[in-house]
Design goal:
The protein has helices at 10-28, 95-98, 145-152, 182-189; strands spanning 3-5, 39-49, 57-58, 72-80, 109-116, 133-139, 155-158, 163-166, 176-179. With 190 residues, the chain is α+β, with helices and mostly antiparallel strands. It has one domain. Strands 2, 3, 4, 5, 6 and 9 form a 6-stranded mixed beta sheet that branches. Strands 1-7-8 form a 3-stranded antiparallel beta sheet. A hairpin with a 7-residue loop joins strand 2 and strand 3. Mean pLDDT is 84; it is low at 1-8, 14-19 and 26-35.
């Protein structure tokens, strides 16, 4: 699959994330083939926390919708198949903590952002897990999730618009089908 690293225009970001939003729920729901529980997909999962919330909600609409001031956006490199659900970002959303040093500005909004690079159980071979991104974005009031992510990270997307990498991780693959890691299966039995 060809991938490219680009700075995206608002229109291209919107199209990119719209396609991702349409494909991601199919993977989450196990509607794309994953050969039973023997394999699954590792990919970038997208979560949100509305203002005053301290829990994540899987974003089923994708990051092309406007995001409310005071909310937190979450991304995680995760794995799922028919029996294993996508993991949520490990740090809980905490807007007050993320944005405590960023003062409100007229005609801008503040949104917390967490990018969790997942666990070593699913990391691609020969790659290292980057440090989590925990930041506050001060951005235009109509900015959507895609623009918030792009304001703090480098995005690599496939030609079809699926998010393949954030800040160079993973380096080459894009929503790869892999064998289900034993560690994840062991966690199910506990």
């Amino acid at each position: 699959m060809k991938t490219s690293t680009k700075i995206f225009s608002r229109r291209k970001l919107t199209r990119t994330f719209l396609i991702s939003a349409l494909i991601s729920p199919l993977i989450f729901a196990g509607l794309l083939p994953a050969n039973g529980s023997k394999t699954g997909y590792r990919y970038w999962g997208y979560f949100q926390a509305p203002p005053n919330s301290n829990s994540w909600v899987m974003a089923m609409t994708g990051p092309t919708s406007s995001v409310t001031d005071g909310s937190v956006e979450g991304w995680i490199h995760t794995f799922s198949n028919e029996i294993i659900s996508a993991a949520q970002p490990k740090p809980l959303p905490n807007f007050a903590k993320l944005c405590k040093k960023v003062k409100p500005v007229a005609d801008k909004k503040r949104v917390g952002l967490i990018v969790d690079f997942g666990t070593s159980a699913i990391r691609p071979k020969y790659e290292s897990l980057p440090r989590r991104v925990r930041t506050c974005i001060l951005i235009e009031p109509n900015a959507n999730g895609a623009e918030i992510l792009a304001a703090a990270t480098k995005i690599r997307a496939s030609a079809s618009g699926f998010i393949c990498g954030i800040n160079g991780y993973p380096a080459k693959e894009c929503s790869a089908e892999i064998k289900t890691p034993r560690t994840l299966l062991k966690n199910l039995k506990k």
